Amino acid sequence: MRVLVVGGGGREHALCWTIAASPLVEALFCAPGNAGISADAVCVPIPAEDLDGILRFAREESIDFVVVGPEAPLVAGLVDRLEEAGIKAFGPTAAAARLEGSKAFTKDLCARHGIPTAAYGRFTELGAAEAFIEGRPLPVVVKADGLAAGKGVTIAETHDEARAAAREMLAEERFGDAGREIVIEEFLAGEEASFFALVDGETALPLATAQDHKRVGDGDTGPNTGGMGAYSPAPVVTEEVAERIMARIVRPTVAAMKAEGAPFKGVLYAGLMIEEGEPRLLEYNVRFGDPECQALLVRLASDLLPALVATADGVLDMFDLRWHDDAALTVVMATKGYPGDYARGSAIRGLDALSASGDVNVFHAGTTEEDGTIRAAGGRVLGITARAPTIATAQRLAYRAVDRIDWPEGFCRRDIGARAID
Prior knowledge:
Layout: E1 2-7, H1 10-19, E2 27-32, E3 42-43, H2 51-60, E4 65-68, H3 71-76, H4 78-84, E5 88-90, H5 98-101, H6 103-113, E6 120-123, H7 126-133, E7 140-144, E8 153-156, H8 159-170, E9 182-186, E10 191-200, E11 204-206, E12 211-212, E13 215-217, E14 221-224, E15 229-232, H9 239-259, E16 265-275, E17 278-285, H10 292-297, H11 304-313, E18 327-335, E19 347-348, H12 351-357, E20 360-364, E21 367-370, E22 373-376, E23 380-388, H13 391-402, E24 410-411, H14 418-421
Parallel strand pairs: 1-2, 1-4, 2-3, 4-5
Antiparallel strand pairs: 6-9, 7-8, 7-9, 10-11, 10-16, 12-15, 13-14, 15-18, 16-17, 18-23, 18-24, 19-22, 20-23, 21-22
């Protein structure tokens, strides 16, 4: 098969690294890719949001299968465009991608179909939002309705902070169109976990579990980010809890989307809060998580590509996947200043020695290569991923690798996986 992966982050590097190992692959391309992905795929300088450019390239290169990594082109309808052109693709249509593209849509879907989630209200007017906030139990959560790169969520500890978040989104348009409507919801206590399932429109095949670390600082302090690290499996998701997630959240969602005329195909990522073994939905994503994808895929013992094709073909009921018993852990290295303002272009050295060691995988997120030097080109830059018999050992290997990287302008959290180890 001639395969195209769309995207250029750490998730897409993990996907390319995994797909490149498939004996089914004749040629592998990535648009736009990054400095690390170029070792596994031919990178083509087409932005992930350039739907016309991707469609044109897929036709010119006789691409058999397209794997769409990021959420923005999914929400914009890239899969619809590819399928209309007769090109098979992995990912949901624009109508199904509303599960991530609109938090209000998802909350209403949950309400209609009895899927357990937080109580909420949705607002387009600041005055109504402020009135709703007044008297709500604290903390209270304020979310931009649309896509905001993981940064459109405020967990407000005071009513003033909640009102300020609503004002930033609705009046000051901090997130542009994504914040023209907001969702205000109750804060759910418990332990957070990420649950992934491949879905072919009817059948849902659960994948391994993972747990992300959203806050920028150690001890879950500071602002939310796109994710500062992850590990798999998540001990909080026992077999019993996993079956509750499938029975109460994932399968009802799949049935609901089919019933409402927007069958979901792709990977469904449920962000969950689990308290005393009872799961509730925080939000849905319609793509592999980043950095959870990195930790998941180094544990996968099966060939990923046939599973993705089976998802697109609607035959997951005849499919299964095998996983290594080992745990995996990913530490994200980011540019100092992230998730706020940060400088670009700093040099990163010492990666060649890590690649030769075999102890870890270094997945690139925001990197470029200039005259043989790897340089930072984004906020989250590297995902240092180790697989080992235990999370504690994977953590030790990952941080040992981090400490061998020469990048003074970078930083990371030092406590990824601590909750699972404790």
